[in-house]
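Lay summary. Proteins are chains of building blocks that fold into shapes, and those shapes determine what they do. In this project we predict the shape from the chain. Here is one chain we studied, written as its sequence of building blocks.
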Amino acid sequence: MNPPRSYGWPAVDGQGNLPAMLPDVTDAIISRTITNARMMGAGREYLRSGRVGRLEGGADGAVVSASVKGTARTPYLVELRFRQNASVTTSCTCPVAIGCKHAAAVLFALQAAKTATRYDASDANPGRKSITVDHAAPRQTVEPLPAALAQWAAAIKPLTDRHGTELYPVTRAILYIVKVQVLYGTARLSKKRPLASMAPPGCALRLTIEPVDVTLDVGGRPTGSCTKVYAGSLYPGYGSPAYMSDEDRLIVRRLQQRLGDTDHEGCLCGAGGADLLERIIATGRSRWENPRGPVLQQGEQRSAPLGWVHDELGRTRLSVAGIAPSSVVTLVAPPVVIDTIGGTVAPLDLGVPGAMAEQLLRLPPVGPEAVAGLAARWRDLVPVQVPAPEAPEVRDLGMVEPVPVVSLCIDKVAMQSWHGSRYRYGGKTQVPCALARLTFDYAGTIVGPPVDEQTLLVWEGDALIRFSRDQDAEEEAVGRLLLAGLMPLYDFDDVYPSARQAWDHVPDLPAVAEDFTPFLIYEAEMLRAEGWRVETTTDFPLRVMPVEEGGMAAAVVPSGVDWFDIELGVTIEGQRVDLVPALRRMLTTFDAGELDALSRSLAEADDVLPVALGDGRVVTVAAAAMLPVLRALLALAANEPAASGAGTRPGFSRLDIGLLGELEETTPKLAWSGAEPLRALARELTQLQLAPVSLPTGFTATLRPYQQVGFDWLEALGRAGFGGLLADDMGLGKTVQTLAHIVSRKAASADPSLAPVLILAPTSVLPNWQAEIARFAPGLSVLLRHGAARHGDATPIGGYDVVLTSYPLLVRDADILAAEAFSLIVFDEAHVLKNPRTSSHVAAKRLKAQRRIALTGTPVENRLIDAWALFDLVVPGLLGSQRDFQRIYRTPIEKHGDGEVRARLARKLRPFLLRRTKDAVATDLPAKSVMQVAVTPTTAQMALHESQRLVMQQRVRDEIARVGLMRAHIMVLTALTRLRQVCCDPRLLPNHGAKPPSSAKLERLLELLGELIPEGRRIILFSQFTSMLDLIKPELDKSGYGWVELTGTSRDRRTPVARFQAGDVPLILVSLKAGGTGLNLTAADTVILYDPWWNPAVEAQAIDRAHRIGQQKPVFVYRMIANGTIEEKILDLQHRKAALADALWSDEAATSAGLTQEDIDFLLG
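And here is the predicted shape, written in a compact code that computers can read:
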């Protein structure tokens, strides 16, 4: 709170006793002051409980304060102010602030203290006295001084009163601020100059004096702010400050007698003003215009004649000749001239008496039309040697068409500043703002506010030109600025434009120069084309300029090991400038969504983008060239850890080649240079501009065109030392592409001890890898780490080309595998590792390898954390930490649907992710692709198969021995059926028991469907056994897959077929009996043969349900074969002996005559 101020209460007596100083506090005063009775009751209780601290008051008793202990840790400070009308105002630092219980407690304490009050003589501040409340002891009287001391005190008291201000430390003082006011306001018009508001040189101004209370530093100079001093409070006898002298009291009394409309400024016009000015100057504490202005000092009298002058409005004035521009003539009697720079105040001898001189200088400006009348009466009014006025020549131009002028400038604008939260208060603050100042050029004369006259006068030589304003044109110009996006200052709340700012416009408040960039780029030229003038003042810190001929050039420059920078050079004013730092600063105000909106707004080919260089220059460049650069820089800035500050250069690593490749691809008009190997790699991996690589010797497969591209991509990654994710749709040959890469890297290596390749896959897929390696890369040595037998194999892992193992064994053998060094790790069906918290993922991270490749047919873009987990394995560091990935990508994409961030992530992954769908490579695919899906039965399932084989082998032998080979075909077919049922699902066997072994084939089927259905595949699932379809259906329901069924018992065949063809469900289950002729399922593009038919004609008939006339897409056929079982043997025998299949499975075959004893021994042996 501010210190208490004096309000005219009686002074303190010499002994410090205050019998009458404290105001009377009655119950009525308390009731009027406090908010309600509840507050009053709480105040009484606070007083009784001793919560009120020591009362303190000013020497005049007008202000009393005290601290009161409330509910907060810090006591509240209460201040009471007593007015002369017996009213009290309260303020408190508590939340209530006014009329609170704390103020009530202080009022009650003051009421109780009225009868027992003393000042504390130890108080160091003579303006503050302590009031000590003691209800127990009566106030003691002060003993009279002995005669000698009383005589001494009587002698020193007048000296103290006379020289009191000299005895106190000079830290406070009364200063007299001398100012002038224009007696008659004028409005000057000038060529090429806006309106002003001053009298011409030599014309008299009214002089005012403002006394202020200031704090002085050790050198006697004013410091801090000053307080206007109210004359009433300074009047002698009303507690005036101790540093106020008798001379000050006299001056203040005189000023009080000369007050005008205010109570703190005195006007020195009229008689006696000059004498009072002399007294004020003699104090040595008068200042010109402000407390820190020049000190005024008395000068010698000067003589000067009076003469006539014309102001810029064509009016005629009396003026003192020979007055310097830095001096002012003031209206006192006699007049004085003040040097506003040196501070000299000199009386003026105008050749006429002082009172007459002052009155002459008070003559109002005389308009041209009134000069003649005044001249005719002049000698009657002024019988002294002052010439009569002469009227100037006036030429009338009538209505003049104006040229609107917009001048961009910097000026201070008065704006309301608010403080506080519960109770808002504030004042006006002068805020520097960039402004568009509208004026009008009338035939060379600039007109702006505050001109209100319709007819204007301006000097041209010795004559006055008179013309009329076109106010319709002026209003139209204001409306045109609104269309240009500029609003008048007076349209904004809490803004107080000055008179000259009445036509000022801004895009927003407060405005800075850069806010006018769009106006200068897009609107200024259109206004100039419409006849406007658009200018900027010399101090306006903004210049818009185009890029010079020669265009832009981009360069990639090294900035460290595996780190690079981008430079974007343009020529401006003959100087080569790199725009990248400026673009980076621009991006600090953008996010991805705003950049996307900017891209849409700058859709036209000729749109330009302003780039601020930071030194007041703004370059306009083609938006088409800049937007890709901005996207790349924004992506690089987003990749920075949250705790790091954005630099001025966007460094990027080799892992950011996706952004580099995208940038070069989308800026074809930019000339790129530097780091050619890196840029070539970026083009290869982002645009797939890959040089074909010859297939290595030892690889026996022929690759389709898209597979050759995949092989070339893997080779490019290998040359650069990168890993990657091959995410082709299932069935497109990810395995064969990877095998080509493995064989190629072995053939290209000159190191005979090249570390092996580790291939990790689900257990069910291992047989397929074995078969594919044996078929397409027979020269590779393979170690299968699977089953319990792996512990007994003492062969070193490093002695093989390829090591095959499963994900379950990765966890169990984590320590063994982590101790080995691999040249390459292949994660097949890598979506198994998509959860970074699983033990499999943790174990995979521990593995040591030069490179890693992941294979998956499951899209990884749908759940972003899956993408991060996989790329964290194969390209560590590409997507940062999981926390950074969450901040940069996952939250904006998954929570806010930010398409720009999703596109940025795609660009980031593009070099390291290759995904082709079946539709995308349809032209490279044959009409029908048949693939064998090898399934390894579970241990229990294999044991059951073996027991059934032994039983059925014996039964067939016995039956052949009993009836002969030709008549034993029924038993042979029964034996084969039992074994096939074990392969499909042991639950198909009659009397299978309470807990039959689980089916590995069923598990593998669900894995296949989990890959195919998310790809949008339309699938026919065939099985010979309807009971097998019944076992499959509950598993489909658990997985949430929609399906329909068609069996031999289906009466309504049309509905399930129609639903499948219409796309209502992705899967149709069909039995062998129902899949005969007449069934058209051309909506399908995938066929799964759960238990294959060994008759090629029957199998072809099933496949033809999808692959027939009307099918527009390639068809993929997956034949599921249980390894090491009857299915594998019959398939092998089918290849070797086609006639056997006809004999076994032909519809016409009624016997098994085609089987030999050797064939039966092979099948059941």
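What the prediction tells us: The chain has six domains: 27-131, 172-391, 395-520, 545-684, 691-924, 928-1164.
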